[in-house]
Design a protein that fits this description.
Blueprint lengths: L20 H4 L4 H10 L4 E3 L8 H8 L4 E3 L9 E4 L5 H7 L8 H12 L6 E2 L8 E4 L21 E3 L2 E6 L6 E4 L3 E5 L2 E4 L6 H11 L4 E7 L3 H7 L9 H9 L4 E4 L6 E3 L4 E7 L5 E7 L5 E17 L4 E3 L9 H11 L9 H12 L3 H9 L1 H6 L2
Parallel strand pairs: 1-2, 3-17, 4-12
Antiparallel strand pairs: 2-3, 5-16, 6-9, 7-8, 7-11, 9-10, 10-16, 11-14, 12-13, 14-16, 15-16
Helix pairs in contact: 7-8, 9-10, 10-11
Bound molecules: flavin mononucleotide (FMN).
Flavin mononucleotide binds next to strand 8, helix 6 and helix 9.
């Protein structure tokens, strides 16, 4: 496999030159979808598909990026899946040539990581085009798929970001924690007890407060890469996203919570995690290919919703070896940035299989994860 030549550049502020350069001046999800299409990598599905199981099944069966443009019960709505379904798509998301050799992609990402870029705050962005407040918010107006027959319901958060701040220090955390739709304004948040979000909730509860949270769906893929990375507590994943994309993330302030979210998001939900409340999330057909239930999930209540005109709902259907979550985890493992919040042995085993791209073995390790955590 010959390494493709990367255009030289001096730091993250200068993206590699390529024939895609003009497009890369836009960093939203739509620009990425256009880029995939120009590389012949996008499949548009314009016949009617059912949000109940069909979108999930097509996503799992077909490994390339898909834009669903005709969704039952949701005229005009669109759903995008499988954006990072292989290493070439990851290269494109990073602004590299799609033919770049895997080792070069990782080497280039490593170079960029040395230069975290602070985000900038702007007043408005595309996502402010439409706003819905409090009682008028209805999440079921979004074409949220019921991804898998084994899922308890529709999953709103499968490829998104959750933004919170430490209630004492105000330091930001951005993560990816799955979210099941519970009602027009309610969803679960299933975060591992060791996650940084769980630490924020614990602090807020100790202070007797709700924790403010913003959820952005349909963001730049580099933002999702950064959010799912194991980044030290107190460090800002927006800076990591800036490093990945070679350009500062542009944030806009939310209105009902003291948080900021990417200006070019397709959909943003502002709200709070209620203190002292735990709900059941799942079963959910998870990355390990098993139906997982979390009886200690948090409850998120939405106070405000913003969305772009004809928003593109971004989601993922996981549970299949080599699906896009595995591709992302393998990329992060190669950068030593994969963290499953397990004990040392489990981390070692899961990271090893990811680096080897042995996705069936990775799933098996995930299924016996609790045994690995108990091993001495
Ligand atoms: C598609 C996807 C789904 C994920 N779902 C969850 C989840 O439901 N709960 C969780 O704790 N981590 C989940 N993760 C992993 C976390 O995002 C990852 O551990 C991240 O490092 C968490 O951030 P933190 O270390 O700041 O808490 C998911 C990652 C991806 C890419």
């Amino acid at each position: 496999m010959a390494a493709m030549k990367l255009a030289t550049h001096t730091g993250p502020a200068a993206l590699p030159q390529s024939d895609e350069r003009p497009e890369r001046t836009k960093t939203d999800l739509r620009a990425f979808i256009n880029l995939l299409e120009r590389h012949g990598r996008l499949r548009r599905i314009d016949h009617e598909v059912d949000w109940r199981f069909e979108i999930g099944k097509i996503t799992r069966d077909h490994h390339g990026p898909i834009l669903f443009e005709n969704i039952k019960d949701y005229p005009g709505a669109r759903v995008f899946t499988n954006g990072l379904s292989d290493i070439q798509n990851i290269a494109l998301a990073l602004g590299l040539d799609s033919r770049t050799d895997q080792h070069e992609i990782v080497a280039e990402a490593r170079r960029r990581l040395e230069h975290p870029l602070k985000p900038i705050t702007v007043e408005a962005g595309a996502v402010t085009e439409n706003v819905t407040l409090f009682g008028a918010v209805d999440l079921t107006a979004l074409p949220i798929p019921h991804w898998h027959e084994q899922d308890a319901g529709r999953y709103l958060g499968t490829w998104h970001i959750n933004v919170t701040k430490d209630p004492e220090t105000q330091q930001r955390n951005v993560g990816v924690y799955r979210m099941q739709l519970l009602g027009p304004r309610q969803a679960t948040v299933s975060a591992s007890p060791k996650s940084h979000l769980s630490r924020h909730v614990a602090k807020a509860e100790k202070m007797g407060q709700a924790l403010e949270m913003a959820v952005a769906i349909g963001v730049n893929e580099c933002m999702v890469m950064a959010a799912s990375a194991g980044y030290p507590y107190g460090w800002d994943e927006c800076e990591l996203a800036g490093a990945f994309q070679g350009r500062r993330v542009r944030l806009i302030p939310c209105r009902t919570v003291q948080l900021e979210i990417p200006a070019e998001s397709e959909i943003v939900l502002e709200g709070v995690i209620q203190p002292g409340v735990r709900v059941t999330d799942g079963p959910y057909f998870d990355y390990a290919g098993k139906a997982d239930t979390n009886h200690r999930a948090f409850l998120f209540e939405v106070t405000r919703m913003m969305f772009r005109e004809r928003p593109i709902f971004r989601g993922a259907s996981v549970g299949v070896a080599g699906a896009e979550d595995h591709q992302l985890f393998a990329f992060l493992a190669a950068l030593e940035l994969a963290d499953f919040h397990g004990k040392r042995l489990r981390q070692l085993v899961q990271n090893y299989f990811l680096r080897m791209r042995q996705f069936h073995a990775f799933q098996f390790a995930g299924r016996i994860g609790s045994l690995l955590d108990r091993a001495k």
